[in-house]
Amino acid sequence: MPNTENNKRIAKNTLLLYFRMILVSLVSLFTTRIVLEQLGIENYGIYNVVAGVVGFLGMLNGSMTSATQRFLAFELGSGDGKSYNRVFSMLLTIFLSFSLVLMFVAIAIGPWLINDFIVIPNDKKDIALWVYYFSVVTFFIDLISIPYMSSIIAHEKMGIYAFMSFLEVMFKLLLAYILYASTFDKLLTYGFLTMFVTFLITLFYCVYCVYKIKGCNYQFSWDQSLYKKMLGYMGWNIFGSVTYILNTQGQTLVLNIFFGPLVNAAKAISDKINSIVVSFSTNFYMAVRPQIIKSYASGEHDYMFKLVFRSSKLSFYLLFLVTLPLIILMPKILVIWLGLSQVSDDMVLFSQLMLIYSLVNVFENPISALIQATGNIRNYQVIIGFWTLLILPISYFLFKLGFPAYYYLIVLISIYAVAHFFRLLIAKQQLGLSIKYYFRTVFAPVIITSLPSAILSNYLCKFFPDNFLGLVSSGIACILMSLTFIFSLGLEQTERVIVFTQIEKLLSRHKR
């Protein structure tokens, strides 16, 4: 397929994913406030620390999703349609076996975790144990859905993916209403309903794939060489995820040990804000990633590198446009969103630093997809994994010395900034990526646009009134300031021409 058609598909899929992201973000903001009000800040913190324990397993979903998408997209890119069903069926067999073993182990150690390891008030331990069990089952259901969801993404059917998200947010709105109206224990009700919503969404994914995507009918087959290849790839991917889990979900437990549930609630809010905002760049990456893998499989390496460089830069810009006003205006935004009584200093600072971390780490995805496309990820996972493992012991040591809770984010930002240079070196060694060209086409434009935008926006926001209208005006001013620098300094001439051409097409259609 010509590259122009691929670019059009990427643009179309990105728009669909943005529609999905806006809808999910709006509903998530609303439901988070309702859930926080109904549970209370202590119960909300308990839920997140309990779910965080399961997150040690649930975060494996990300690595297994990445591996699944790689194998399925590679089969499509190589043009071997006959083997797609074989690969899909083997992946589903592996996931079923893996999830059953993990679920058994997780349920067996649940009482010890809740009663002896996690800091939870005694009168909440029984309910917390049930919430833990619900979270384990939710993990199992999520794991089974991965091959089906990955098939939708590999086939670039982002319209269906967006529709599924619409169903999910409708269910979450209903969940918030039921939680509001429920006379049962709110924490227990929330845990059960979250599990039930996950089951319904997974069911929809399975039914659609079986009836609408060729090759998604499960047929048991076993290829020992393919199994070893998949298991080796997934094993190294899981190793990378384990280090990530220790650095993120592990911090939830460390913060709980040193500072208690209230700080966990502040971290949970910052994580929620970050997950919503990061979707601005990950939606674009999700649309590009299958093309990176397919172009590698088909031998179109020049186009592959062009996608990696351009998506790295554009994903930063998309994230920066949203994060800059949020970082500057975070105290006011949290008060309006959650109410003054629910907002703490930790919550504000955690949220600001978490967004800065996301800006630093936004460059990871395109380079990671590039390396994963090769299937040779051992060196990548070992080097990045062991380097980032330093985060947890450093944070623990700082907390022992009496440093405040937000220092874990400072450590996180610093370690991941250095980790990206290791990624570039690995990509150079394995694929011949030009680091000099990467710095010139990605880092240089990003720096010369983001620094002046941040400085001038922060200065400009001081002149707006301290009310809701002033908040909205400040946010718009930050975005306009950033857009000005991005268009004038951050884009190449050909990229500016593409943008203006698309704007002209939209205006001409509107006039008609």
Distance between the termini: 31 Å
Helix content: over 70%
Order of helices and strands: HHHHHHHHHHHHHHHHH
| Percent in strands | under 5%
Total beta strands: 0
Can you describe this structure?
The chain has helices at residues 3-58, 60-78, 84-117, 125-154, 158-181, 186-212, 224-259, 261-297, 301-338, 345-361, 364-374, 378-388, 391-400, 407-431, 435-460, 468-490, 493-511. With 512 residues, the chain is mostly helical. It has a domain at 1-221. α4 runs parallel beside α6 (186-212). The model has no long low-confidence stretch (mean pLDDT 78).
Summarize the structure.
The protein has 512 residues and is mainly α. It has helices at 3-58, 60-78, 84-117, 125-154, 158-181, 186-212, 224-259, 261-297, 301-338, 345-361, 364-374, 378-388, 391-400, 407-431, 435-460, 468-490, 493-511. Helix 1 (3-58) runs antiparallel to helix 4 (125-154), helix 9 packs across helix 11 and helix 9 packs parallel to helix 15.
